[in-house]
Amino acid sequence: MRPINLLHLLEDVVATDEQGNPVEVDGEGALDVQVLAGEQTVTLQIPFKLPPRNVEKIASLKGSFTALIPGRMETFEFESFNRANQEQRKAGVAVILENVRRNNQVWEVRVRVRFDDAEGSLQSHLSWIFNNECYMLDAAGERVDPDTFETTRQTENEVGMAYYYGIEGKLNGYKLIYKTPAVIIPLEMEYEVKDIPLP
After folding, report:
1. Widest Cα–Cα separation across the chain
2. Taken in order 152, 119, 126, 109, is the CA torsion positive or negative?
3. What's the CA gap between 22 and 42, in Å, rounded?
C-alpha cells in the first residue's frame, strides 16, 4: 500500500496534556503532503500554541487523515498506430492513444489517461501520474523507454502526455505498453500517539 497523498485537516487534531487539559492547535486549514515515489516515510508537522510552562508532555495526540491509495495496476497494450483516439478501458480508468507521428528525429506518442473519479489525485502539485510506465516493445520483445515527455493536458480527472522515442525507421512490429492504477481509493485512517515529551 503506497499512498499518493495524505490530507490532514487541523480541525481533526485533538491533544491533551498530562492533566487532561487541551493543547491547542495553532492555525487552521489542512496539511496536504505528497508521497514521492520511493519514499518510506512522510513528515506531518502539526503546529501547536505554546502550552503553560508546567506542561511537560502531550499525553495524547489524536487525529485522522485521508490517504489516496492507488488500486490494482492495469496494463494497456496498443499494437496499431494508424488510427487516432484508440481507447481501452479497465475498471475505473480509460487510456486513449490519441496519435503517433514522426516529429523530426523522434516518434511522438500522445496518450491520455481518464479516471471516472481521480479523487483529487491529479492536482497539479501531485506528480505520481508521471511515474506511470509508458514504453515500446520491439518485435524481439526489447523494451524502449521514452527519451523525454511533456504534459499536454491536465484536468480534474484526466491527464494527457506526449512521449518521445528515439526509434529509427518505422514502427512495424512495435507495441506501446502503458501501466496505471485502475482506480484511486480514498482511505481514512485514525491515529493516537501518547506521552510526547515537550522540550
Report:
1. 76
2. negative
3. 26
Answer CATH for 72-182 from 2.40.420, 1.10.1760, 2.60.40, 2.60.120: 2.60.40
> Cβ of 65: how many Cβ atoms within 10 Å?
22
Q: Are 69 and 3 in contact (CB under 8 A)?
A: yes
Placement of cell 513528515 in the chain: 43
Write out pLDDT tens, residues 72-103: 999 999 999 999 999 999 999 999 999 999 99
CA distances from 47 to 31, 74, 81, 139 (A): 10, 40, 53, 57
Rounded to the nearest integer, the mean pLDDT of the chain is 94
Q: What is the pTM of this model?
A: 0.83
Q: Using an 8 Å Cβ cutoff, are 184 and 72 in contact?
A: no
pLDDT, tens digit, 9 for 90 and up, residues 5-50: 999 999 999 999 999 999 999 989 999 998 887 788 888 899 999 9
